Amino acid sequence: MVQRSLVLMKPDAVKRGIVGEIMHRFERAGLKIVAVKLVQADDELAGKHYPNTEKWKVIVGQRTIDECVQNGIDLMENMGTMDPLEVGEIVKKWNGRCECG
């Protein structure tokens, strides 16, 4: 049976110049890339792929906080809050303009 997967890379992967390395890792694992599409998602398109619920924002916010703490990133300096809901709301609106770390 043939299985297909969709891989989405966020703008920071493009900005950091690691898209090729990410794709190369898939190829080294023996996976075949059959198509590539580069899209600059606007708010409307992004909104179709991310829920707008408080629960989702809290989960994403807490994951972001955990990752930042683990990697020594000062969230208060970068985002001005450590509240999971507020961080989740920032991440929901995030479009690559915020620089953290």
UniProtKB/TrEMBL annotation:
Alphabetized PANTHER family for the sequence: NUCLEOSIDE DIPHOSPHATE KINASE
EC numbers, comma separated: 2.7.4.6
Keywords: Kinase, Transferase
Listed cofactors: Mg(2+)
The organism of origin for this protein: candidate division WWE3 bacterium GW2011_GWA1_41_8
Any one Gene Ontology molecular-function term assigned to this protein's record: nucleoside diphosphate kinase activity
Keyword Transferase: yes
Nucleoside diphosphate kinase-like domain mapped to chain residues: 2-90
PROSITE patterns membership: NDPK_LIKE
Taxonomic lineage of the native organism: Bacteria, Katanobacteria
Protein name: nucleoside-diphosphate kinase
Family to which the UniProt record says this protein belongs: Belongs to the NDK family.
